[in-house]
Amino acid sequence: MNIDGLNSAFEQKLLEGAKEKCKTIVLPEAGMNEHVLNAGIIVAQNKIAKIVLLVSDKKLINKFDVKENDYLKIVNITNSELLPILQNALYLKRKDKGLTEEGAKELLKNPMYFGTMMVELGLVDGQVGGAEFTSADALRPALQIVKGKTPTSLISSLMIMISENTNYGENGVIMLSDCGLNMDPTSEQLKTICFDTVNSARKIVNIKNPVVALLCYSTKGSADGDCALKVRKANELINNENPDFIVDGEFQFDAAVVKSVCNKKAPGSKVDGKANILIFPDLQSGNIAYKIMQRFAGFKCIGPITQGFKKPVNDLSRGADTNEIVRAIAITALQCE
C-alpha cells in the first residue's frame, strides 16, 4: 500500500490489518479540519476502512471536491435524517442525569456527541476525533455515553511510538501509558493500566514479547517518596497475579531501556534494559515524555489511543497531521470487536 510517509514495515502491517477488518469509522471534525478530511479521503481511497465524515456545512467538502462512494459517506449533522433517532436515544440514555429532550437536541449540534451516539447505536464501529477539541471535550461524550466494558472499567490511554531505529523496543515500536487521561493513578490503577496496555500491545500492535517497566525517578529502591512507594506497590500487585509477561519496577528511564545501565542499577532484573512498554507514574510525566520523543527524537506517534471503552473512541493530538490521523483510524479499526 503506497501512502507517502506511511512506508515502514510496521505501518504497512497496520494498514493491511485494518483493511482486512473493513470497519466503519466516523470522523466528527471532517468539516472543521483539513488534516482530518484528508486522512478520511486517503483511508477511503485505499479501502483501509469505511469513513463517515461529519459536517455542519459543506465549505471544506466542496473545496476538496469530495464525492461519496461505498467507502466514503458525508453526514450533515444540522439536517441529517438520523437526528430524531440520535436525539431520542441520547435523551433516554441521560435523562436520569437531568438531560431534557431539548438538551439532547442541543448536544447533538456538537459533532463529538453526534459521532459518539452513532458509535453507541452501532451505526459505525468506532470514532476518531480531537484534532480541534481538547482531550477532555473529545472524550467527555464517550465517558458519558459509551462508557467502559464493565461498570468498574478504568479508561486509560496509550501512545504507540514508532522509530526507524529497530533497536528501540520491539522492531522500533514502544508503547507508553497513561499519557492522556489519568492524572495521578493509584497503585491499583497502575496495575490495571499495565495489564490493559499489554493486552493492547498484543492485540493491536502484535508485540510478541511484552517487557514492561514501571517508571519513576527511582530504580529498585534507590530513592524514596510517595511516587516511588506507589510504583513499587503497583509492581507488587502486578506480580501477585502471575503475569505472563516480563514486568518490573520501579525503574528510571535509562535503566528500563539501556542494558548496561539496567545491569548496574537493577542487576538480575528480567527487564534487562529491553522494555518495550513503559508505564508512567502520572499523566504529566507520560505526556511530556511522548512529546519529547516525537519532537526531539523523531518518533512517529499514534494516539492517544483509549483502552477500556465498550467500543473504540479515540483521541487525537491537536497538532496531529494527516498521517497521524490515518494511523489512528487504522488502530481504531483494529480495536473493533
Taken in chain order, the helices and strands follow as HEHEHEHHHEHEEHEHEHHEHEEH
The CATH class assignment of the largest domain is Alpha Beta
Q: Report the average pLDDT across residues.
A: 93
Distance between the termini: 24 Å
The major β-sheet equals:
6 strands, mixed
Poorly predicted residue ranges: none
Summed up, the helix count is 13
- The best one-word shape is globular
CATH fold-level label of the largest domain: Rossmann fold
CATH architecture of the largest domain: 3-Layer(aba) Sandwich
Give me the count of strands: 11
Q: Using the CA coordinates, give the radius of gyration.
A: 21 Å
Can you describe what's shown?
The protein starts with 8 loop residues before the first helix and ends with a helix. It is built from 13 helices and 11 strands. The strands form 2 sheets. It has a 6-stranded mixed β-sheet, sandwiched between helices. Strands 3-2-1-4-11 form a 5-stranded parallel β-sheet, sandwiched between helices. It folds into 2 domains: 9-147 and 317-335, Rossmann fold (3-Layer(aba) Sandwich), CATH 3.40.50; 156-295, Isocitrate/Isopropylmalate dehydrogenase-like (Rossmann fold, 3-Layer(aba) Sandwich), CATH 3.40.50. The radius of gyration is 21 Å and the shape is globular. It is α/β, with parallel strands linked by helices and 337 residues long. 42% of the residues lie in helices and 17% in strands. Helix 4 crosses helix 5 (101-107).
